[in-house]
Each structure stands twice: as C-alpha cells, then as structure tokens.
Amino acid sequence: MAQTTSSPANADIGSSSSSFPHEALPAGPASSPPHTTATNNNNGFQRHTNTISTSSIISNGNHNNTCHTHNHRPSQLPDTYAALTASIASFLAVSIHQILYLRAIYPQSTFLPVRHFNRPVRQSRHPRVCTWITDACAAVEAQLLKCTIAAVSIVILSSSNNQPLERYTFDMTQIPEVPPGDVRTPFDNDNDNSRASEDPKNQQQQQQSTKPQTHIPPVELEAQFRAVLARLASACARLTPLPRNEEYIPTLHIVLRNTADAPAGISNADHLWIAAEPSKLDLNGEFDRAGSRGRAKTVPVRTVDAGELKMEIWVEEAKGKFAELNRIRAVHET
C-alpha cells in the first residue's frame, strides 16, 4: 500500500516536506508540474520501500535572473558529521540542477553556466526551481542528521500518467550512523597516530621495521564531486533521449533505512516487501521476449570514497520507459 500523488495540489509529506509553489505552470513543452508525497514504493522500479518524495515546477512566465545559489565549496574532507551532511546536500543540489539540464526537463535556455566544485556546470535561473531544490536538499540534510536515509533518488515521471521513466540514485547506506549528540564531534584522524609516533618506543619500533611506510595522499572532496559530475554527463548521454514535445515531472525520493520511523500515515506493516509480478511464459515454457526487452536498464555513474563519505551513484531506465516513449511518439504523430 502506498500514498501517491497525481497533482501538485495533493502535496503533503508532513514535517519532512519542502515548501513548493503549486500554482505555477510548466515552462514550455519539456517540463511538467511537480508535487510532494510520501510513499512506500519506488513507482514501478520493482522495489517497495519507505520513501519520502518531492517534485519541482517552474512557470512559463518571465524568468528573473535572481536565483538561490549553492556556494558550498568544500576543499577538504569534512571533520564532523554535520559538515559531512552539509557537503552531501550541496553536492546533491548541484547534481539535481545538472540532471534537469542534461535531460532537458526544463528548457535548457533557462539554465546559466556557473562553477561549482571548481567545475563548469549549469544551474536553473528560475527562482521557483531553485527554491524547490534548496528546500528539498535541506530536507535531505535534516534526515541525514538523523541518520535515517538509505538512498536519495531523482525520478523523472511522464506527466500524462505518472509513469516513471528514469531514476538517478544516490546510495548512502555506507555513510556511518552517528548518535545525535556526536554530529558535531570531530572524526578520528591521523593526529592520534602522529602523537603515538612521538613516543620513543614507537619510533624505535618504526626504525627496526623493514616494511616501507606508505603515504596515502589526502582525498580532495571537490575532486570526487567533479568526477561524479563528469561521469553523470557521460551516463546521461548514453540514455535514450526523452521526446522534447512532452511534459515531465521531476521528483525527489528519500528512501529511509529499515530502522527509521515511517512517515506520517504509514505503518510498519507497510514496510514489508511485496511479491513481484511473475514474468510471462508461453506454452513452451519460454520467457516472453517482449517482456525481457522491457526490463529496467542500469547505467553506473561512480562511487565516491572520501573518508567517512562513501556513496554510490547510478542511473536506471524504468521497465516501461520504452513502451511509454512509443506511446508518446504515436500520440504526437497522429
């Protein structure tokens, strides 16, 4: 069982939601209204988990040049869990802008060239899109501080029937869980090792040791983020293009850990997995070829491994994407 949303007017995720302008209109033929919802499924990607989702919208009116900018530029590894969550939220905001631009969810002329993490990227200049992304990433950061997030996904839906087409997943299950009282406590670093090396006994042991000392260079967080953004552009180029004369809805889903509290209105029983629909068989017992071609396609992006920040990113094309694209093309051809 899941709570789904069919229009922006139905938006409600309780205390975990981000504010959103429901009265705005799509910007041109390549965009669609967003919404906010709480659900315990992944919209046709065959996995049913506990998620919180939000979506974005912009207007087709005049575009102001004022925009919420994301000026977080972490050059070093975060030394506290709170700083780590802030870095993740900043990186997620830049990634969402890039996804919206690369997939032409909104007209690409509404995006400005900017630099984040010392890399040229695109950022929407529409204030409402910027506000939605900022609020959504703030909600992600708030949940990260509670150590409740397993993954964050950007799902592109077809506006006509809410059919999921693409999903961009940021898996955060490897990020450590920190007690609430320790979110601002510095992580363990090499200072303890350096202090131990000052001990004469330790120095003598190091001199007697014949094993060469390996020096691990410090990992620059900006370099990790730049690599992900570069691979994200490459992964998007490998996807099947979305028709430009159709409207789409970008949504953000927060997948909670199994130990996290459920969103309002969802009980613990709703967390249980459900059986997937079996594949079709013909009379000879062979799998249906059409069904096998319609399976979801996964494109890996990159793994981030920087200190306590460990995250995997990949892109999925939904099982019914190609059938939905064929339907869209048939409608516009007629």
UniProtKB/TrEMBL annotation:
Gene3D superfamilies in alphabetical order: HORMA domain (3.30.900.10)
Q: Where is the HORMA domain?
A: 82-315
Comp. bias intervals (Polar residues)? 1-20, 33-47
Which Pfam families does the entry mention? HORMA
Q: Which domain of life is it from?
A: Eukaryota
Q: Where is region (Disordered) located?
A: 1-49, 174-218
GO CC annotations, alphabetized: zeta DNA polymerase complex
The name of this protein is HORMA domain-containing protein
Q: From which source organism is this entry?
A: Paracoccidioides brasiliensis
